Amino acid sequence: MSDMNDIIAGLTQELRRGTIILGVLSQLGEPQYGYSLVPVLEEKGVHVDPGTLYPLLRRLEKQGLLESRWDTNETRPRKYYLLSSMGREVYKLLCEEWRTMMSSLQKIMDDPR
After folding, report:
1. Three-state SS sequence of the chain
2. Strand order in the sheet with 78-83
3. What are the beta bridge partners of residue 80?
4. pLDDT at 1
5. How far apart are the C-alpha atoms of 58 and 68, rounded to whole Å?
6. Burial class (CB in 10 A: 0-12, 13-18, 19+), 70
């Protein structure tokens, strides 16, 4: 039984990887600093570890999907992220693709062979 639980855990983690990207992009219509995303996403049912989040934010910024700025007015400087114009377009297209994939998968799951 432990082997099956390990397999399920691994496959579930693979399924979540793409959803984390959509979850993060969905929350960056307004500026957010990295760690503030963790509880916001958690509250909405998307668990993301800070060790996963920060490399993802850096990668999305490098790809041009996010813009960032430092806020040094508080005690601790914080880097705020926001969708770039390309990021907004990419997010919109990813949502359309997600809906198409979900619809197709729902049909497959409803009609198993």
Report:
1. CHHHHHHHHHHHHHHHHHHHHHHHHHCCCCCEEHHHHHHHHHHCCCCCCHHHHHHHHHHHHHCCCEEEEEECCCCCCEEEEEECHHHHHHHHHHHHHHHHHHHHHHHHHHCCC
2. 32-33, 78-83, 66-71
3. 33, 69
4. 64
5. 10
6. exposed
User: Hunting for tokens 């219509």 — which residue is that?
Assistant: 29
Confidence bin at 74 (pLDDT 50/70/90): confident
Rounded CA gap, 33 and 78, in Å?
6
Q: What single-letter amino acid sits at 70?
A: W
60 CB burial (10 A radius; 0-12, 13-18, 19+): buried
